[in-house]
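Appendix B. One record, verbatim.
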Amino acid sequence: MDKNDLFNYVEIKGDPTKQEVLDRERFYGYVPSKPLILDFDTYAGLHDSIINDKAILFSEQSLGQNASKEKLKSSISIWEDLDLKLHEIHMLDIPFDDVEEGELTMTPEFEDIIKPVSPFELPIFFNREKRGEVYAELQSICLASSSRNLKDNIKLYAGISLSKLSHEITVCLYHHEIAHTQLDSWKSCNNLLDLETLPILIEEIFASKIDASGRTLEKLRNIRLLELIKFLFIYMATPNMAYSNRIASDGYIKSILQAISLMNIYLTGSGSMKKEIQNYINRIFAEQASVQDMLNHFHSNMDETPKVLQKLKVPR
């Protein structure tokens, strides 16, 4: 195999997981995504430079475990401090396991178990099986309308599952998931590969707000960079991975790079620049702009983001 093919994808003939991706894109009305084509020299160089950075390599050690639901709830005020406005979501008012994904049949009985709420009303669960891991998951279910009209599709939320780490890190992971609740429309984000960009940006903004020393932000940034090279390693070892896994991994690689670019602009920018980025986030949440609009505006698309470790680290 030519070295230039090591990071590129070989699709498995008849892979059933491709349909899962197509169905998800159809539900939201997203632009069809394609696996990334990654230049070997560029990404091999980035991979090797990260491997040689001990702070990144050991970033998942000493993550703490003192988080509590009370501390998470107390951090909600940061959204108001940042003047970021969130819209209500649809929450399931029954146990999540009692509902299966599928075609939506709206009945009076079904309507009774759906409640419009603030995303902060979603129950929080600490996942004991994920203790010590960097883990967060938004529990949700997508129900497609039989009308085939995108506007009639509905996404229902049930809760947020988190690993119990340090207060600072868990707070950032929690608000990462809160940000996801605001992106359930194609008007806000129209490509699967960009879907993690804004939540990772929010995660880093919160890190900068709750810890003035910068240590939490640096820790989270290093964890994301380590995550990036783990995907690159898997690509080299498994060129024909399941299509859904490849798209999910590509989405993290693309989003990590784009979120870092936006955050570095935020960190080094003036007060007016920070306000401009916050205003753009509000516009996305309000479906007045998309993540792609924001990336274009701030020249932070993946192709425009440096793949040099020094420029991906937190600015000093």
